[in-house]
Amino acid sequence: MKAKITITLKNGVLDPQGKAIEGSLKGLGFEGVTNVRQGKEIELTLDESDEAAARAKAEEMCRKLLANPVMENYAIEISP
Amino acid sequence: MKAKITITLKNGVLDPQGKAIEGSLKGLGFEGVTNVRQGKEIELTLDESDEAAARAKAEEMCRKLLANPVMENYAIEISP
Predict the structure, then answer these.
(1) Alpha-carbon distances of B49 from A43, B1, B57, rounded to whole Å
(2) For a designed S-S bond to A38, which of A17, A29, A46, B15 qualifies (C-beta 3.0 to 4.6 A apart)?
(3) Among A residues 12-71, those touching chain B with beta carbons less than 8 Å apart
């Protein structure tokens, strides 16, 4: 199974990378761009054939290593 | 319109961040995890009401600033 894990900053957490991108876009002449937020996407292959088991494993990875639950949200998509 | 831009490394491009994550997951006892790749996700709000126009603008941003087309692929999702 493949897992796609998207990690984003929680609302209210300052996002300096997003702000920098917003500033650069404005500098390049892009108008009307707001709320730029940058997150991470991690793709991996799991040696599991059961979707529920793969999802549980990916959740555990997020909790233990990939995401910081104080500041970040994560979403998991499982595909064959 | 909101745009969600996912930027991933092209196949064949070395991904040291992904390798580091893979190593850490193994160190924590997660077995059977392979092909770990890390990408970026950028969310932004565009001052456009037309989906095609918003997509064209997001594409231009990817080409001009957000992605490196030599090493990276990008995917754009537009939502209201």
Answers:
(1) 32, 6, 12
(2) A17
(3) 18, 21-22, 24-25, 28, 30-48, 57, 60-61, 64-66
